[in-house]
Amino acid sequence: MQAKHPSESICIMTDLVLPSETNPLNNLFGGELLARMDRAASIAARRHSRRIVVTASVNHVAFNRTIPLGSVVTIEAKVSRAFKTSMEVFMDVWIEDRESGLRAKANEAIYTFVAVDETGRPTQIPEISPQTELEKTRFEAALRRKQLSLVLAGKMKAQEATELKALFQ
Ligand SMILES: CC(C)(COP(=O)(O)OP(=O)(O)OC[C@H]1O[C@@H](n2cnc3c(N)ncnc32)[C@H](O)[C@@H]1OP(=O)(O)O)[C@@H](O)C(=O)NCCC(=O)NCCS
């Protein structure tokens, strides 16, 4: 399978925050953002693999900034690393100022997806070749994050997590 570039997987989703999607402080409800990110990330994973994909793990979400009612929210999702059957998808979330149109970073998130066949069995995906400096940085760190996720899920022994030894010793 030929290696692909992260840009081939990009998914950009822009949507409004409506009243039914807010918490009592009139800011976007966290679970609503998680669901929107899951959709954007699954499209990016599907574009990279051209397979059915399922969410295997939500590895990291940072709710750094509140997102007020009426905001225009843009989620940019891109595959940051592809392993054998799984992919890490990195997301940047932006909000747009109504008057100036300037964008401010609101959140970041990292999800893991697995490509599966029609019976739900994991299936092989193309490799990824990072191009930009940011893509290279995210690619490099992805193996560490995968191992951490597997250790936390009880699917890998800490002693086997070669990239994490410094954290666990
Ligand atoms: C995700 C799923 C397909 C993995 O199946 P599995 O039998 O554990 O398969 P494997 O052990 O071969 O793992 C497949 C890949 O996923 C990776 N993986 C599995 N769990 C992971 C986790 N928690 N974090 C990171 N990667 C994980 C494995 O490392 C492996 O990666 P690789 O092939 O790229 O090296 C299976 O657990 C599943 O179908 N889960 C439910 C998915 C779902 O319904 N999601 C929506 C939730 S509502």
UniProtKB/TrEMBL annotation:
One of its GO terms (biological process) is acyl-CoA metabolic process. Pfam families: 4HBT. InterPro entries: Cytosol_ACT, HOTDOG_ACOT, HotDog_dom_sf, Thioestr_dom. SUPFAM superfamilies: Thioesterase/thiol ester dehydrase-isomerase. It comes from the Bacteria. PROSITE patterns: HOTDOG_ACOT (PS51770). Residues 7-119 form the HotDog ACOT-type domain. One of its GO terms (molecular function) is long-chain fatty acyl-CoA hydrolase activity. Keywords: Hydrolase. The keyword Hydrolase applies. GO terms for cellular component: cytosol. PANTHER family: ACYL COENZYME A THIOESTER HYDROLASE, CYTOSOLIC ACYL COENZYME A THIOESTER HYDROLASE. Belongs to the acyl coenzyme A hydrolase family. This is Acyl-CoA hydrolase. It comes from Gelidibacter sediminis.
